[in-house]
UniProtKB/TrEMBL annotation:
Belongs to the glycosyltransferase 87 family. It comes from the Bacteria. This is Alpha-(1->3)-arabinofuranosyltransferase. It is found in: Cell membrane. Pfam families: GT87. Keywords: Cell membrane, Membrane, Transferase, Transmembrane, Transmembrane helix. InterPro entries: GT87. The chain crosses the membrane at residues 67-91, 103-136, 142-168, 175-192, 231-251, 258-276, 334-354. The keyword Manganese does not apply. GO terms for cellular component: plasma membrane. One of its GO terms (molecular function) is hexosyltransferase activity. It is a multi-pass membrane protein. It comes from Dietzia timorensis. Its main location: membrane.
């Protein structure tokens, strides 16, 4: 953890997501236009909504860029640590257990956490909001659950699909905070930003486009490798269908295995979103950490080799560029997160179907209901 924060993150990378945030928040605080970047280049762009600009503006108050970046790194590192602690609480793993340092080691070795810190982006806070949302839902603090979700949506809409979880359980309370917080923050940002209209005129159309660089979604990979659009569309539809079937079959776990249901359903939904959306970047996989942590649960759907091959695909730091086999190396380098997201959905769906169609294994789903075999 110290190595990732003090060495890798402070050293930085060519990719610097914080530079655009710092410059935009400085312009915002000075009353100037925020959305002034050239979107034709491949450098990181400031694509946050006015609501995020307001919430991130305190970092722009720091006069020295280097100190502001270090504070931002430390802030995200603390958020990631807090998220892991909440997940340990959710999975009932004691802090004195050998599993605790093992989990921290595994988490900080992932590409998701490492590059979140090295690239200096805000995904650490998003991860903390996800973990807090799960804990509060599980503890039936439904009104409070909307607060971390609303905060995350005010910054970026990445976790919006997870509102499916309270929706499936007909819990409306989390939606109050999840909707009210981003609306209020957006209204404040719109009023305080001199060029708020540019967010809809320039940024929103740009984000809907499929780009062929740093994009592991099916559409992005298809565009990069020249795959016919009808085939990409068919694959996207297939992923949606598989994810929908998996979510339906997982409903049987929501009463007797709630933590498993929350974590696994969220993982399936988010992996599907990464695949079918216009942009899927590998470090988004941080939100799949709760899914892989379900391995500690007896009824887990990731206690198999295929699930961990998938995890390697979307968590690995390995670089696959090859001087001897340049095309094949580039193919693996660009597609291993795509492969991982797809394989984890397929794996979970296969295990669910395997359990569903076997009377004895159906006890894994609803042990309180007698099966014909038990009768």
């Amino acid at each position: 953890m110290i190595h990732r924060v003090v060495i890798r993150a402070v050293n930085g990378s060519v990719t610097n997501d914080f530079g655009t945030v710092y410059a935009a928040t400085r312009r915002f605080l000075d009353g100037g236009p925020v959305y002034v970047e050239n979107l034709q280049v491949v450098d990181p762009h400031y694509l946050y909504a006015p609501s995020a600009t307001v919430l991130l503006s305190p970092f722009g108050m720091i006069d020295m860029y280097t100190y502001a970046r270090w504070i931002f790194i430390a802030f995200n590192a603390l958020c990631i640590i807090g998220a892991v602690l909440l997940l340990l609480r959710l999975f009932k793993i004691s802090l004195s257990s050998y599993a605790t340092p093992a989990v921290f080691l595994a988490v900080f070795c992932t590409e998701s956490v490492t590059n979140t810190l090295v690239f200096t982006n805000i995904n650490g806070l998003i991860f903390l909001c996800q973990a807090a949302f799960f804990v509060l839902l599980h503890e039936r603090r439904l009104w409070a659950a909307g607060i971390p979700m609303g905060l995350s949506l005010a910054i970026k809409p990445m976790l919006a699909p997870l509102l499916l979880l309270p929706l499936l359980r007909r819990q409306w309370q989390p939606f109050v905070g999840a909707v009210a917080i981003p609306l209020v923050a957006f209204a404040a940002g719109w009023w305080l930003t001199s060029d708020g209209k540019s967010y809809f005129d320039i940024i929103t159309p740009y984000m809907s486009e499929v780009r062929d660089y740093y994009n592991s979604s099916l559409a992005g990979a298809g565009l990069y490798f020249g795959v016919p659009e009808p085939l990409i569309l068919a694959l996207r539809i297939l992923v949606i269908v598989m994810a929908a079937v998996a979510v339906y079959l997982l409903m049987g776990y929501r009463h007797n295995h709630e933590v498993l249901w929350l974590s696994t359903t969220s993982g399936v939904v988010m992996a599907a979103v990464f695949l079918v959306s216009s942009l899927g970047q590998m470090y988004y996989s941080m939100v799949l950490i709760p899914l892989m942590l379900t391995v500690v649960l007896r009824e887990s759907l990731v206690r198999n080799a295929a699930a961990w091959v998938a995890a390697y695909g979307f968590f690995t730091m390995d670089m696959w560029e090859s001087e001897r086999w340049p095309f094949h190396g580039r193919l693996v380098e660009f597609l291993h997160p795509t492969f991982g997201w797809l394989l984890i959905i397929v794996t979970i769906l296969v295990v669910l179907l395997w359990r569903y169609f076997d009377p004895e294994r159906r006890q894994h789903i609803t042990p309180s209901v007698k099966t014909p075999a038990a009768t």
